[in-house]
Specification:
three-stranded antiparallel beta sheet, Enolase-like, domain 1, eight-stranded parallel beta sheet, TIM Barrel, 15 strands, alpha/beta, about 25% strand, 2 domains, 12 helices
Length: about 350
Amino acid sequence: MPLSLAAEVIRLRTRHPFVIARGGSSDYRVVWVRLTDDEGREGWGEADPSAYYGETADTVLATLERLRTLLPADPFQLETAESAFRGRVDPARTGAARAALSVALHDLAAKRAGLPLWRLWGLDRARAPRSSFTIGLDSPEVMRRKIAEAEPYPILKIKLGTDRDEEILRTVRDATDKPLRVDANGGWTRERALAMLPRLREFGVEFVEQPLPPADLEGIAAVRRAGVLPVVVDESCIVAADIPRVAAAADGINIKLAKCGSLREALRMIATARAFGMLVMVGCMIESSLGITAAAHLTPLVDAADLDGAALTANDPFVGATIDGGQICLPDEPGLGVRRR
């Protein structure tokens, strides 16, 4: 018989308002998904919707209801199930909902096999990179407090895309000498991005993420051709099919489960990006440890990670992958290895 589905909205609160170039909030509604087989085993997933991609917790619940009848009896029917999900709904506006089902199926399949998901995939968890910690837009005083709170993390990711970006960088550099990565979330013009590049290098930035609006691949390519810093795209690259056209414009991609819609699509993105010689990064939304742990199982395959979404929250209801001194540590337990706090 098909797997049974339960879904519950969980409200996450961030320690500080999380603000980027497009705006921000302190309150996030995510959806906890549970799939149960006929022997009572549960597979868990989390939908982390973003209004930017046309999703809310309410639309996720509606999407889950539409997909309920497509749930397989066998959780190992991963490719068939994910293909059916994509065919029933608009893939461009259901990534978080479909990702939650994908993760729950993978969790349940690995639990049936009695193996952690990373081991079922044949990965070496010791190869997971260190995660950065994101410093959102804020006043200089609050940013200094955030940097102090991020002391265990060896790499900081700084949100930019404002008219005071250099002030932000000076504030950060006055507070720490850690390696920096910056993310403009598409907030710059081409002229602004090109003018910022030398300053970013002076401040010790390793790479710049999404300097221009997602559709401006010609402009992103111009930033890359300047040869000052590697350029990584996030919003410009949603699924594996996007990679051939962005490969000419950028040095790397940032994969997020809520964008691409499934763990299997994320694996395809990694393989495709590698074929083009690109840097591969795994990122996140504001998520609990359930969502972060799912993404963390991909990290032995990537170059960089920004999986601080749960660390930014004040009320994480789950325990899963940990980040010790910035190092991502995957659980030993079967499946994702996530439990309730």
